[in-house]
């Protein structure tokens, strides 16, 4: 199984799980990650070798997703959006790091940007699971700060 197929399966599973079992913050987060993965596949540089220079389309997508997770971090009563926002911040820094170190091998750049997406999916699964646990224990799980 290729890495791309494995990620697609993980993305679909985490999105489905959060959409069906999550609260509003989990559903927003899952939809954002799903849309970001889909958009990233479409905005990657179609001309020439990919990831041999900054992938501007992916960088802009990552920055938009970061903005949504920063908003979720501020507005929701959950802690997990802070983790995903931090990972997205690191991913944006990987893109910008290519300006400082343009001789970085393209595969290292590609892997460093992709790594955070995998971790974000696992956090979405854990966040949804914890939401279900809180609901089971107390019958309520407040989604938003007052």
Automatic annotation (TrEMBL):
Keywords, comma-separated and alphabetical: Membrane, Transmembrane, Transmembrane helix
Transmembrane segments: 57-74, 80-101, 108-129
Domain of life, per lineage: Bacteria
Name this polypeptide is given: Uncharacterized protein
Organism: Sphingomonas lycopersici
């Amino acid at each position: 199984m290729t890495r791309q197929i494995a990620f697609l399966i993980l993305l679909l599973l985490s999105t489905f799980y959060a959409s069906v079992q999550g609260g509003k913050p989990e559903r927003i987060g899952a939809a954002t990650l799903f849309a970001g993965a889909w958009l990233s596949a479409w905005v990657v540089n179609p001309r020439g070798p990919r990831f041999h220079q900054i992938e501007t389309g992916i960088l802009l997508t990552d920055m938009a997703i970061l903005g949504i997770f920063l908003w979720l971090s501020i507005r929701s009563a959950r802690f997990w959006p802070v983790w995903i926002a931090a990972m997205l911040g690191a991913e944006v820094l990987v893109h910008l790091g290519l300006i400082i170190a343009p001789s970085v091998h393209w595969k290292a750049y590609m892997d460093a940007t992709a790594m955070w997406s995998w971790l974000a999916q696992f956090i979405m699964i854990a966040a949804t699971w914890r939401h279900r646990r809180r609901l089971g224990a107390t019958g309520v799980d407040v989604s938003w700060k007052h």
